[in-house]
Amino acid sequence: MSKGAKLAYRPIGLIGGILAGTVSGVVFKQIWKKVANEDDAPTALQSEYSMKEVVLAAAIQGAIFAATKAVVDRAGARGFSKLTGAWPGD
Question: Which residue ranges run through the membrane (predicted)?
């Protein structure tokens, strides 16, 4: 793919990353409420939670973000490819 096409895709990738972060945050919050019966997940600096609880929350949040980002990135790449005929990752 040409440098011009890669540059043209950059704003799409940036917007996709922001969208993925927002969506995954909402999804994680809803899942955490159901799993833990708490509104907020524990953070690393909250002493009332065990290491296991903090790491589990972070792992779930990370997995949700990675999966959401992959879906958004793939959809963006497919749309870009249909519009331009070039795949942004190649």
Answer: 12-32
- Overall domain count for the chain: 1
* Ranges of the chain with pLDDT below 50: none
Instruction: Find the radius of gyration of the CA atoms of the chain.
Output: 17
Q: d(Cα 15, Cα 89) in Å, to the nearest integer?
A: 16
CB atoms within 10 A of CB 42: 20
Give residue 44's domain range: 17-71
Tokens of 62: 């990370």
Contact 40, 33 (CB under 8 A): no
Using DSSP's 3-state secondary structure scheme, residue 85 falls into coil
